[in-house]
Amino acid sequence: MRPNIDISHTLNGRVKDYAKRQDMALDKAYREIIEAGLEAVEHPDES
To answer: Around 28, how many Cα atoms within 13 Å sit in the side-chain half-sphere?
Structure first.
């Protein structure tokens, strides 16, 4: 099940800006950012 969370306008704007810079759809940008964040918290010593 996917969580239904509130995302601030500022954070959403940052993701939109990222998607635009990378020339990708917003949903793909969210997916990429979430996956990168999960990787970072699951493996904090690997940078």
So the answer is: 7
| Residue 47 pLDDT greater than 80, yes or no | no
Domain membership of residue 24 as a residue range: 9-42
pLDDT tens across 14-44, in order?
999 999 999 999 999 999 999 999 999 999 8
Is residue 20 situated within a structural domain?
A: yes
Asked whether residue 2 is domain-assigned, the answer is no
Decide if 19 contacts 29 (C-beta within 8 A).
Answer: yes
Q: Are 31 and 46 in contact (CB under 8 A)?
A: no
Neighbours of 33 (CB within 10 A): 15
How many Å apart are CA 15 and CA 4, to the nearest integer? 17
